[in-house]
Design brief:
Blueprint (H helix, E strand, L loop, with lengths): L5 E4 L4 H11 L3 H9 L5 H8 L15 H13 L4 E5 L3 H16 L4 E5 L2 H4 L6 H8 L4 E5 L6 H9 L3 E5 L13 E3 L1 H4 L8 H13 L10 H10 L6 H14 L5 H9 L7 H17 L4 H8 L3 H34 L9 E6 L6 H12 L3 E6 L4 E6 L6 H6 L7 E4 L3 E6 L4 H14 L9 E4 L1 E3 L6 H7 L14 E10 L6 E3 L4 E6 L9 E11 L2 E11 L11
Parallel strand pairs: 1-12, 2-3, 2-4, 4-5, 5-6, 7-8, 13-14, 16-18
Antiparallel strand pairs: 8-9, 9-11, 10-11, 14-15, 14-17, 15-16, 17-18
């Protein structure tokens, strides 16, 4: 029943919550949920609950985007060949498809190349510079990569090829200086919530115009990329995901529609996209060839899409088998570590496929409840990926270890790195020394942020119904959570027992926890409407009188 989560209740503002809820015709409790999501005015609430293309932010506010638009228009006017180079994960592939469709619709001479990480590693490879020059490329658009590739961009410029970068990865010391660097993290401006698919959509919005009806045809691609990259579902991201999910199952893209059917996508929810669709899109990139996935997304012919689907299904099946094998070996190796001495799990092995290090690290972090880094090695190099947990900023941690790294990048929650195999043990020692010095091992657990403490009588059908309007749920927009103090099980009815605080009785629903009828509990859950009645979808339970952390500001 217990968990390592630290419960933190947001500081309530009942006066403002009541005022906002009254203005919007909502229960006061829902007003607090909205305040906690940064929504303090009715206009913002309307945008949140009823997003439209018209409510998207002006793309011209993004750094260097006007420069990118001007440079692309000059290239189109001069009939200059444009090459779009995109990363091979779902974010990079969908972003590349968005850029391609937008430029092609405007008559640009545009081609697309998707990264082969096995052959070239991460980012734009130097080996393609000569190939691009031979093809008379005059403008390169680097998608989901390029921010920290100053040397490659200088070499492209020497060959007469200008570069635009659309990327959301954090800058390092090797910051590039292309003709346009559309990366909010490199300029300290608004838009940091956008992934590369979102940035590509904003480029299309700027090129086509905000009122252009064609934009909605790109929303399902932007939604997939945003969800796959775990970008926060706030602002423009929320709008793109809401609009994109509405279209996904009936998309006009025959390849994507057939793929949704193939993976058994029965409802367009973030959970199903992440569990069924995204792994299939990522599989080809992990095994080296993601070009056919990009082709499937932009394919307009069902007959040409079918063989692509068959090939992608085979790749996905092979990917799942290989992933299971590596994960089993990774768990075995991690289990041999003395975890009390390891605030960060670092594992590595000869022969592992480098394309699977990201998902393996994510599963290790979840299982061992601490940051994890998985590294695939051969005789010359070791290439790895990391996923964070708790309070640790992975990019900052890698900066503290850069003396033993050949290359690294990423952001606070996920990273990639390259080092010499002989430095694996030194790296493991250094990153754990950093975590211990920062006392990150003391803050390794999950922080469960709770919207408000309530009494059971406040969980009404009106509140539960309003909560569903907050969907889609995901990173940055989780289900509103409430805490109930000192409740007891009144009647154990299997999966949905009744609980009471002495005045009101409600059902609790969801994961079955071992709640005893003779104990008092503090519960955390989300208001839900079950068969027309108000209930609480249970998230965690603890014996009553549990200490809480200090309230957080919304």
């Amino acid at each position: 029943m217990s968990s390592r989560s630290v419960w933190q209740v947001v500081a309530a503002d009942p006066v403002s919550a009541h005022r906002l809820a009254q203005a919007c015709g909502l229960p006061p409790l829902v007003g607090q949920f909205l305040l906690n999501r940064g929504l303090a005015h009715p206009a913002g609430v309307e945008r949140f609950f009823a997003p439209t293309l018209d409510s998207l932010d002006d793309p011209r506010h993004l750094p260097d985007l006007p420069k990118a638009v001007a440079r692309i228009r000059r290239a189109m006017a001069a009939r200059t060949p444009i090459l779009v180079f995109g990363d091979s994960d779902a974010d990079g592939i969908t972003a590349s498809a968005i850029v391609f469709e937008c430029l092609a619709s405007l008559g640009a001479r545009v081609a697309v190349r998707i990264s082969n990480r096995l052959a070239h590693g991460y980012g734009f490879p130097k080996t393609l510079i000569s190939e691009a020059a031979r093809a008379k490329t005059g403008l390169m658009v680097l998608v989901d990569c390029g921010t920290n590739q100053a040397e490659e961009i200088r070499e492209l410029a020497k060959r007469g090829i200008e570069t635009i970068v659309l990327d959301h990865h954090l800058p390092t010391a090797d910051l590039a200086h292309p003709a346009a660097l559309v990366n909010p993290h490199a300029h300290e401006t608004a838009g940091k919530e956008l992934c590369s698919a979102g940035l590509a959509f904003k480029l299309a919005q700027a090129l086509w115009g905000t009122a252009d009806e064609r934009l909605v045809s790109l929303s399902e691609l932007a939604a997939i990329g945003t969800l796959a990259d775990c970008a926060p579902l706030v602002g423009d991201n929320r709008i793109l995901v809401v609009l994109g999910l509405r279209r996904l199952l009936q998309t006009h893209r025959p390849g994507l529609r057939l793929l949704c059917q193939t993976v058994g996508l029965t409802s367009a929810t973030p959970e199903q996209v992440l569990q069924r669709l995204t792994p299939c899109l990522n599989a080809a990139g992990r095994l080296g060839d993601a070009q056919r996935v990009w082709r499937l997304l932009v394919e307009s012919s069902l007959s040409r899409a079918k063989p692509l689907i068959r090939a992608i299904r085979k790749i996905h099946a092979a990917s799942k088998a290989l992933h299971r094998k590596i994960l089993s070996e990774a768990h075995e190796q991690a289990g041999r570590l003395h975890l009390k001495d390891h605030a960060v799990v670092v594992i590595g092995r000869q022969g592992w496929h480098p394309g699977f290090m990201g998902p393996v690290a994510a599963q290790l972090a979840d299982r061992f409840e601490r940051p994890a880094i998985a590294i695939a090695m051969d005789d010359q190099t070791a290439v790895g990926s990391g996923r964070s947990f708790g309070m640790m900023n992975l990019l900052e941690a890698l900066r503290a270890c850069e003396g033993v790294l050949l290359r690294y990048g990423g952001h606070a929650r996920a990273c990639g790195l390259t080092l010499s195999p002989m430095n694996l043990e030194r790296f493991r020692e250094q990153i754990n020394r950093y975590a211990q010095a920062a006392e990150l091992h003391l803050r390794a657990g999950r922080m469960l942020q709770i919207d408000v403490q309530v009494a059971l009588q406040e969980i009404t059908p009106e509140v539960a119904s309003s909560v569903e309007r907050f969907a889609p749920f995901g990173v940055g927009n989780g289900r509103p959570l409430v805490m109930l103090r000192q409740v007891r099980v009144e009647e154990d009815a299997g999966r949905a027992p009744w609980v009471t605080d002495g005045r009101t009785t409600r059902r609790i629903w969801g994961k079955r926890l071992a709640l005893r009828c003779d104990e008092g509990y503090d519960l955390v859950g989300s208001p839900r409407l079950i068969n027309g009645d108000a209930a609480v979808s249970l998230r965690e339970a603890r014996l009553a009188l549990t200490e809480l952390s200090e309230p957080a500001r919304a």
